[in-house]
Amino acid sequence: MAPIEILVLLADFPGLRSKERLFLAEKLDNMEELAVLSSIEGLSLFLGRTPEFPLPSKAELEERCGRRMEQMRRFGIGFTHFLSAEYPPLLREIHDPPYGIFFRGTLPDGGMPLVSMVGTRAPSGDGVSAAFSLAEDLGRHGVPVVSGLAFGIDAFSHKGNLSGGGCSVAVLACGVDILYPRGNSRLAGKLLENGGCILSEYPPGAGPLKYRFPQRNRIISGLSRSVVMVEAPEKSGALITADFALEQGRDLFVHRGSLASKRNGGGRKLFAQGAPAVASAADVFASWGRAG
């Protein structure tokens, strides 16, 4: 297996698929070997295809490696990859698992079931109450809540889980040094102080580009045993997470407490299509065959 510097750099290589990054991680032993492959011709021969983007030169590799490792030291960022024992086991099972994860804080226990909670950035009062109370109830039972640290349902889900003593997990669509949106930086700090985790497949310095949010959503659902759609209009991006949950074989629920909300057309549609309604941790646990 390649040293940590190579593993981290492979996460930053443009145009490579997760399986190709893993293949290279197993084959490369040092920076010199990576530098040889950093030409289009070298990597094309090694992988059997031509990457879509130009790859960095040896000098760029060395500069990028130094900068990346310094960023990780400065922000206390860890890294785990697909073949590592600490890589989240449920995430390993999805169709397109991330090659690696950058994280701050403590990764959740691989044997602990997680619950993802998602929804609109502009919730109603019912949506806020529903998100906070369910997440708090899950926290009291020792179950971490996974969400995206966005304003609205995400933020109140994290806050409720922290209030209940849960070690909440935030999945970002940017580097974990950025803490997007900035308005939730204090919430992110509390999450870390209370044993939680902030993670991303994107390296430090990567910005919150629009296309990264749907990619991020597959990780939110992929980490969890169950996904709860709290409140979302019919065209909400949160429904992408619901689609991923179904593709990944996760339990998909809607929150009973916000079904009547005018801002929950997407949730009602999922309910009409068969998604069960829940309002408490006990409701979720019942689907697992677990007593509260």
UniProtKB/TrEMBL annotation:
One Pfam family hit: DNA_processg_A
Q: Which InterPro entries match?
A: DprA, DrpA_SLOG
Q: Where is the signal peptide, in residue numbers?
A: none
User: Domain Smf/DprA SLOG spans what residues?
Assistant: 81-286
Would you say which domain of life the source belongs to? Bacteria
Among the record's GO biological process terms, what is one?
DNA-mediated transformation
Q: Which SUPFAM superfamilies match?
A: MCP/YpsA-like
Query: Member of which family?
Result: Belongs to the DprA/Smf family.
NCBIfam families to which the protein is assigned, alphabetical: dprA
Name-wise, this protein is DNA-protecting protein DprA
Which species is this record about? Candidatus Avitreponema avistercoris
